[in-house]
Write a structure and sequence with these properties.
7 strands; single chain; TIM Barrel; globular
Length: 303
């Protein structure tokens, strides 16, 4: 989809949001609706967010949208960051569009091959030693890591292995004033056998690593699938969390009333903890123009 066509289509789609979901309707029918409704050219002058949330978006959810199109849309929506991308993407994005990359990709070993297996430590150390200084040099605040799959390993053994493998990386992060975050994922639906699938396990790891530069990436979708109790968990463990992701449950699609979570209350709970980091939309859009869904998600979370 061409850039102008994508943005124009998004503008046309905004008017339909109120008919698709109650949560979206509550957003777009507020008194300030005129400020948040795009004209046919999707004018950024009318996109006035409240400024309480640092909005971000995960690029992989918009794989068919060119980075430059997504970046321009983010500028106009008030989104400050595009994340989970590599150096070849975040360098031109930061330079050309003035956007942040709230979380940079770490090692290409990926989700299944993480720090719980000592066999991966050498490669992870090499990969992250290469990326951490580069990311820090351009102001990227965080680099992502993963626990890896169990493959029959005891969770406490895996936690110890993660702590040992992360030690030199976290020391490097401390030196460069950047955070390492480990994402919590569900092992019930999307990532079978993933070890870091419960908040308690992640909290235990953060305590073992014992550094202000190592925190959890709390994915609201994944943890709702695994354990629920999202708001209470956020309130209890906010000091352990460095970043948040959204997603509709079930299905990991739009975060409107087609799913079970009420995101305005969740985001307010996050803000009430004093959190000043980034919140990223990581749902998979189902609309023909995914940017319309992205804009809806931002408005729902703009409390």
């Amino acid at each position: 989809m061409k850039r102008r066509k994508a943005l124009s289509s998004m503008a046309a789609g905004v008017g339909a949001l109120s008919a698709t979901a109650c949560s979206a309707k509550q957003v777009v029918t507020k008194p300030d609706m005129e400020e948040k409704t795009m004209d046919k050219n999707f004018s950024s002058k009318k996109e006035k967010l409240k400024g309480n949330v640092n909005h971000s978006v995960c690029k992989w959810c918009y794989s068919n949208t060119p980075l430059e199109v997504l970046a321009e849309a983010c500028q106009e929506m008030g989104i400050k960051s595009i994340e989970i991308i590599g150096e070849k993407d975040w360098r031109p994005m930061i330079k050309n569009y003035g956007l942040q990359c709230a979380v940079a990709n770490g090692s290409p070993l990926g989700i299944e091959n993480g720090f719980n297996d000592p066999k991966n430590h050498e490669q992870l150390l090499k990969d992250l030693t290469g990326i951490v200084p580069k990311a820090a040099a351009v102001g990227i605040p965080q680099v992502i890591t993963f626990s890896g799959n169990r493959r029959g390993m005891d969770d406490l053994v895996g936690m110890d292995n993660c702590a040992k493998g992360l030690e030199p990386i976290v020391k490097l992060a401390e030196k460069h004033n950047i955070n390492i975050v480990m994402e919590l994922l569900n092992s019930k639906v999307n990532h079978k056998d993933y070890m870091g699938d419960h908040t308690d396990w992640g909290i235990g790891l953060v305590e073992k690593v014992n550094s202000p530069n190592f925190k959890l990436l709390y994915d609201i979708y994944h943890m709702q699938v695994m354990e629920g109790d999202v708001i209470a968990t956020i309130r209890k463990y906010n000091d352990y969390i460095g970043h948040y992701h959204t997603g509709g449950v079930p299905g990991r699609n739009e975060i409107n009333d087609t799913q079970e979570l009420y995101y305005p209350a969740i985001i307010q709970a996050i803000l009430d903890t004093g959190f000043t980091g980034y919140l990223a939309q990581e749902f998979i859009p189902t609309r023909e123009n995914p940017l319309v869904s992205l804009q809806e998600g931002v408005h729902i979370c703009d409390v």
